[in-house]
Every structure is written in C-alpha cells, then in structure tokens.
Fold this protein.
Amino acid sequence: MNTIFITGGTCDIGLELIKILEKKYNIIFTYKNNLSRAKNIKKKYNAKFYKLELENLNSIKKIINILKKKKIIAFIHLATEKINPQTIENINNKDIFKMLNANCIGSTILIKETIKIMKKNSYKKKNIIIISSQAAKFGGNKISLYAASKSYLDGLVLSLSKEISEYIKINSITLAKVNTLGFAKANKNKKNITKDIPMKRLGSSHEIAKSIELIIENFDYMSGADLKITGGR
C-alpha cells in the first residue's frame, strides 16, 4: 500500500489529516513531545508513529532509514519549532540556534532525503506539501525568527519546484488563523480575533486537512504554488 508521511502528526491539523487518509493509505507520522497523544492516535487509526527532533541530525537519520523501506507517495511537513513570543534582543541565543536548526537546516535535510526516497518509486502523483504561515509574508510582533524560518521554507519550495516537478510536485499552504488548541491557548485573552478576517471566522483543522487531501489526489498540474487558506485575510 502507498504510504503518506506526516511530520507533526499530533497537532490538530495532523490528526484531522490522519482521520481522512488512514483508510486509503499507510500513514507514518511523527511527534516530538506529545507521546500520549501519538499513542491515542495509533489506537484509533491505521497509523504508525516515530519521534522526530528536527534540530537533531541523528533523529532525522532514524526517520529516513524507516522511510527507505516504504513507498512514499506524499510528504506533508506540518512540524515546526516555536518559542514564546518575544523581541529579538530578548531571545536566548540557544533558542535561536534551536529554532533555525529545526525549521531551516533540519527541515531542508529531511526534505532532501525524502525526495531521494520518493524519486525511486514509479507512482505518478507524488506530492510534497509544506505548511507555511502569513507571518512569512507580513511578519508579526515578537515572532521574527518564526516568520523568517517560514519565509525560508517558502523560498525553498519555489526553488525546488524548478528542480523536481518532473517527478514530484511540491507546493506550500499558507495559513492564517486556524482554530487549533495551540491557537486558542495563545489567544485566550484576546478579543475580536476575527475582525481582520473577511470571512469573519477562524479556519478549522478539518478544512485544512481536506485541502491537503485535494492537493494530493486532484491537483495534478500544480507545483511551486502557494495555496492561501486564510479566509480572505
């Protein structure tokens, strides 16, 4: 059976994606800290999980060795390293290295090695989908490193689409405000959080997951694109 590889599978979007895809594909997903949720997902759905630390090269190598034994037809990169919002002068230097090593260097190595694995199988509709953020386009208060790392990945997707689109489509999805547990926690004391969204509501994890499914299964002539799922924002 064809395999779909999802990083950050324990996040709300990852969970919704697993729910949608697990009956049609083998699912391999990764987690970093939330082992209990990973175990619960495995109990309910046809999915296997492994720990991945993007800032750790040995951790990446372990995942790659697992993927080499599978027929990977899609790679969805949801995982991202974050720190608490703060101004650049107050960010610990260790946190700078950790975030950029994970979101930029580690992600690049993982993408590179997964491309090499995916290229070897003859499936005609192979996809890589990288999750981006409007922060990469517009910046954001006290999230400079996060925004910069997402902007880096946007550039990587666009450039790789010139290199690999003959055998693998690669696209990004830009998100704005999505009603996840993490978003709710970060914005619990804020009011009118939808006032700058033309659709006047938050996006849902299910809507994002369905859009990813659509790219995997139906968008056969799209590569190097940035699909904006932002409610018009």
Q: What stands out?
A: The chain has eight helices and seven strands.
